[in-house]
Amino acid sequence: MIVTIDGPSGAGKSTVAKKLAQTLGFRYLDTGAMYRVLVLSAIRAEIRWENEEALVENCRNTEFHVEGDSIWLGDENVSNEIRHPEISKQIWHVADHVRIRELMVERQRSIASFGNYVCEGRDQGTVVFPKAERKVFLTASANERAKRRQVELAEKGVDLSLVEIEEEQNERDLHDYNRPVGRLVKADDAVEVVTDGMSFEQVVHELVMIVRGSR
Ligand code: C5P
Q1: Class for domain 2-211, per CATH?
Q2: Element (H, E) at 166
Q3: Ligand 1 site: residues with CB under 6 angstroms?
Q4: Which of 139, 141, 142, 179 has CA 20 to 30 A from 193's CA?
Q5: Distance from the CA of 181 to the center of ligand 1, in angstroms?
Q6: Entry pTM
């Protein structure tokens, strides 16, 4: 069974998707981490963002693997490094690229082809797994999302003002909602959950109900 969770950045998808997978005994696929690791490897290889061919090649050649909420570049665990704001800032160079997305979609389908998965991202219910058994569109107001992100980053030792976070969030939203392929949109058959004012436990409970067909 595939459960997809899509939504804008800062809606709390990752923590909720992880807990949902754990509760259901499913595996968890963080597709954002896959785009992030490509940015990291491009930066390390000193590829210029205008060099699209090199970015596609980098996508083909980058050896990474994902396991739960961890991601390895080669044999180095880069799970923390990929969360750095600089990676978020540059993400559109790979995430807006049609051919890179095609390669990533292929890889995501192949990863989730065996077993039960909670797949989280922007295009999971629309492009990657249009026939997923359960689909959730998880969202929250822009202000709520920015506040949550500030707390999340502070826990990782990154201190940013709400204004800086909102700027980055607006920029990412703009790309996420407008990219030519894989743009962020609620699938017609997804259940929308707006999490403003809901606790983490309430959101997870709501999603468990949706997966079990009680919502
Ligand atoms: O989910 P997360 O914020 O880690 O994702 C990082 C970025 O990767 C997002 O801002 C989005 O632009 C991109 N992304 C995407 N498609 C996905 C997952 C993430 O374009 N399925």
Answers
A1: alpha beta
A2: helix 162-178
A3: 9, 31-32, 35-36, 91, 95, 121-123, 172, 175-176, 182
A4: 179
A5: 13
A6: 0.94
